[in-house]
Each structure stands twice: as C-alpha cells, then as structure tokens.
Amino acid sequence: MKILHIHQDYPDNRNFPSTNAVKNLIDGVKKKDKEIEHFVISINRSSNPFRISFKQFDDGLSVVFWSIPLPIIYTLSIRFWSFILKKTINLKDFDCIHAHKLTSEGVFAYYLSKSTSIPYYISVRGGTDLHNINRFSGMKKKFSKIYKNAKEIFWVSPWATELTVSKLGVSEKGILLPNICKLVEPESVISYSQSRYTTVLSFHQYKRKGLLKLFQAIHELNKKGLDVKLDVIGSGGEKEKRLIKNEVNRLGLSNHVKFLGQLPHSEVLTKLQASKALLLPAENETFGMVYVEALSCGCPILYMANTGVDGYFCDKNVGVKVYSQEINELSDAIITLEDNNSFYKQEIQNFLNRGELEEFKEDSIVKSYIMELANGK
Fold first, then answer.
1. Residue 183 — very low, low, confident or very high, per pLDDT cuts 50/70/90?
2. Helix (H) or strand (E) holding 321
3. Average model confidence (pLDDT) across the chain
C-alpha cells in the first residue's frame, strides 16, 4: 500500500509553523508495517505570489502555493494547484490519499481524487477545521461534499464531532484517532508536597492560551490570601516577552510567577510531575498533547470545554473543565484544584493504573490506523 499524505503543518525545513503530530503517525506506521509506503505533500499557503516554490525534502515534496483567504479565490486556487500537483507527481501508484485536515488539505484531496479516482481519508482537527467552517460560510456545501465523499473520517478529538456534523448538515461517521503522545511511566508513589502550578505555551499564543487572564485570576486569589505560584514554561519573540513580563510586574506577581524558558521535553515532564496542576485554559485548541503528557505524570489539568482533549475524559476526575477564560471562572477552578489536589492526584493514579491512557500511545493508534486502511481496501 502506498499513501499520499497532504498536510499543512508538516516539518519540511521551511520557515513555516509546523507540528510533529502527522510525522509521529507516519513514523509509527513505518515501524509497524514496512510494506506501507508514504509520500508527503507539505503544503504552505502564502499571499505573496513571489514565494511560490516546489522543493523536495526527506519525506516528500514541500509546496508553497499562492492563495488568499477569500471563499471564491480560495477554492479556485486550490483547484488550480491540485491540477498542478497532479501533473507534478505520478499518482497512479498511490492506493489512497490521507488529508490531515478537512477544510484545507481535504479540498486538495477532493480534487485529486475526483481526477484520479483514488479514494481519500480525512482527519478532522476541530480547532482549525471549525474555525475555517465558520470563516468560509459560503463553502459549507463544498466542505459537506468533501466530507461525504471521504472513504472514512478520523476524528482527532471527540468534542469536534457533533459541532462539525451539525454545521455541515452531514451524518456522523468515522473513528477516533488522537495524536500520538510520547508518554513516560508515572511514578509509582505520588508526592503531595507540590507547591507550584505550571503552564506550557509558546508566547505568540498567549491570548489563545489565556495566559494574561490566568495572571489576573492568580492576582485576585493572592489578594484574598491564597498563595498561588505559577511556573511558565516556554518562550517567544521579544515583543511578546516584554508584554507578558510587564503584565506580571503590573499585577505585582514577580514573586509568584517564574519564567523557566524553553525546556527539553524530559525536563517539562519532570516539572509536571512536581506540579500541583497544569493550568492551560486554551481556546481553539486542536488537540493539546501537553494535557495528556501532564496526566501521564500524575498531574491534574485545568482545560477548556469544546476544545483540545475535551471529551476524552468524561466522568474522570482528572482535573477541572472551564467554559470560558473569565477571571472569576479561572479563579474558582484554581480554588477547586487547590482544595482537592490530593483527591485529583489519587484519581489520576487510579486512572493510570487502569491503563486508560493506552489509547494515546503509538502502538494503539498505529494499529487502529492500519486496520482502518486495510478495511477500506
């Protein structure tokens, strides 16, 4: 079997934002089944026509294509670039196409499939796809057609299912296929002596991650006599650093908020093991691997409803779910974590002992993926 992957955030040595989520899946499949071949088209949109380029890289072909985010132009440009890709790549050897988002890569897959009859699969990534469905309201019929014609749908997060189906007016189908998480074995004995909370983010995402609202909530709690301390893991541009640190100083939190900078992955996990909880009220989060990593370390989580990992932990006492970044709601959530910290940590240990994070591990996800592809032959 030979799979053509289309992904917009693939690490392709270009100066565009990227994530390892799809690469982790491909690498896992390679280890499990060496007879499955993979070729990646890494697509990068630019509004500058002079940046158009095609470049080979280790896993496939990196493409910078021109388009602007206006419904008619967006559709026509992707149709045009799909035609160019068909002429550039010999598609006759491929058994299927996997588009790793519905509303961008899925459009490419639809046109390539239409002209070649190669079946396609689609991953729905709630944050980006729902944002685009709302943004390109005039393209809902096209997105619905792309969804209906897909061989199968892979839902990265369960919370996105009902919203996507409702907005597109389609029937629910598909399976859950979360991102692969690199998890460590939790310590067998949980220490309850932790005194600090942790948050993890790239500073350019500080608004979406609710960082300043978190500072304000901590400020309000400290005024009421609750000594809340927060370690911030991550970094970013100088402009964002100044803005964030100025807010800490303005609120008088310099003794309560510590900036740890960018840490190696192993140190992030060690820090989470030693934390009271991960505080990350992120909006529009496609998945949020750090939440699962925190739980694997025995660390409770503060997370947002209808985004990220919401839906995976229904009826599990793994932390506190909030419905907005309102300061009062964040304050109440932190108080709940503070008052019930030992309870949450013990519940997470029980959760881990039952093996309930197995669904996020490479072996489980890869097996499910390969089985679904084999069934679709």
1. confident
2. strand 319-322
3. 91
Q: What is the Cα–Cα distance from 319 to 104, expressed in whole angstroms?
A: 34
77: how many CB neighbours lie within 10 A of its CB?
Answer: 17
Helix (H, G, I), strand (E, B) or coil at 22: helix
Q: What angle do CA 36, 40, 46 make, to 5 degrees?
A: 170
- The pTM (predicted TM-score) of the whole model is 0.88
Give me 266's structure tokens.
């192993």
Four-CA torsion 306, 307, 311, 314, nearest 10 degrees: -80
* Measured CA angle at 285 (ends 30, 43), to 5 deg: 50
Distance, CA of 121 to CA of 136 (rounded, Å): 22
What gap in Å lies between CA 308 and CA 82, rounded to an integer?
30
The alpha-helical segments, DSSP class H, found in 169-264 are 211-223, 238-250
Mean pLDDT across the stretch 20-40? 95
